[in-house]
Amino acid sequence: MGSSGEGLSLLFTRQEPPPSVTILLGHYVPIRGEEFFAFWGGTVKNNRVKFSDGREIDSYGIAFSVGHAIFQTYGQIGTDFQEFIWEGPALGGGPPLEDAWRRLWPLDSKPHEWPPRGTRFSSTGLELLIPSPEVQPRPTDP
80 or 132: which carries more pLDDT confidence? Predict the structure, then answer.
């Protein structure tokens, strides 16, 4: 897609994210005694993701919370093609935290409830939402 300015102009022209992006919604509830963050955010640029078939892509991740809502966005750098849908983060190569997320984009026909049932993220757990070698988003077929 080129520069970030070009990507933003496409977003405003289309009025929707590109197909190579996945947006997830999660629930933030601090544990008793933890500091409550009214807002929080983290980003990762140029995160290299390796597939089991040997392919590699460059991706980015953005996570932020507002109140109790967490928004997790993953995208593939350099393409507008929907090759896969990102799942939520997986800790240490384990299964993704599927019950923690509701997918907002790409659209699906499942209704969304608030708050999402399943895993909630504490203040400490928010750090798990920034992709790293230990915590990786996983791509799946659309």
Answer: 80
